[in-house]
Design brief:
Layout: H1 15-20, E1 24-26, H2 32-41, H3 45-54, E2 59-62, H4 64-68, E3 72-73, E4 86-90, E5 103-108, E6 110-111, E7 126-131, E8 133-137, E9 143-148, E10 152-159, E11 162-165, H5 173-185
Parallel strand pairs: 1-2, 2-11, 3-4
Antiparallel strand pairs: 4-8, 5-7, 6-9, 9-10, 10-11
């Protein structure tokens, strides 16, 4: 998707490549403990912490990548990266709501604050979701967007250089391309 609009990107788990990067995307598919385990096994937690927390490199977490940035998850026992004051919880509905889990399909977002990640994202924008868990931010000011699937949940957050989307921008056609373009081209 980044190549479609002319942005150079490298898919890597090499610490030296990460060290040279001026922006990072932390994707994720799978389970919380498994994701944290892979980061640990690959020796990436320290370089990511250095880049994100010390150097303030912009990072975008996608789906599980967003969840890994929280403090913890009901899905596992591992600690998260703790880059945002939040926890990840299972989708739970009121007793009168019967919807399948995972939430899989297209949904809209309601933008809660102005931020470059959501620049030129219109009210007609729809994004592709696949998730059974969602992030609950302890600070409402960190919530960038919400969506509704039986309950209202945080579909994006942003705090300083740390951003996350529960939806998959890379699978969300032109709407997701706008989000990725906003992230990739922002120069602060």
């Amino acid at each position: 998707m980044l190549k479609k609009f002319g942005e150079l990107s490298v898919i890597t788990s090499d610490s030296n490549e990460i060290e040279k990067s001026d922006k990072l995307i932390l994707p994720g598919v799978g389970a919380f403990d498994q994701g944290m385990g892979y980061l640990r096994e690959l020796g990436l937690i320290e370089i990511l912490r250095k880049k994100v927390q010390m150097e303030k490199t912009p990072i975008l977490g996608i789906c599980l990548g967003m969840q890994l940035m929280s403090n913890s998850s009901e899905e596992g026992k591992e600690n998260g990266l703790g880059w945002i004051d939040a926890k990840t919880i299972k989708l739970k509905f009121p007793s009168d709501v019967r919807l399948p889990i995972p939430n899989m399909g297209w949904n809209s977002i309601e933008i809660k604050k102005e931020h470059y990640l959501m620049k030129d994202i219109g009210t007609e924008s729809r994004f592709y979701f696949v998730h059974s868990y969602h992030v609950v931010c302890n600070n409402e000011q960190d919530v960038l967007a919400t969506s509704n699937y039986g309950i209202t949940f945080n579909s994006a957050f942003a705090k300083d250089n740390v951003m996350g989307t529960q939806f998959h921008p890379e699978k969300s056609l032109k709407y997701g391309m706008n989000v990725l373009r906003n992230f990739a081209t922002y120069r602060g």
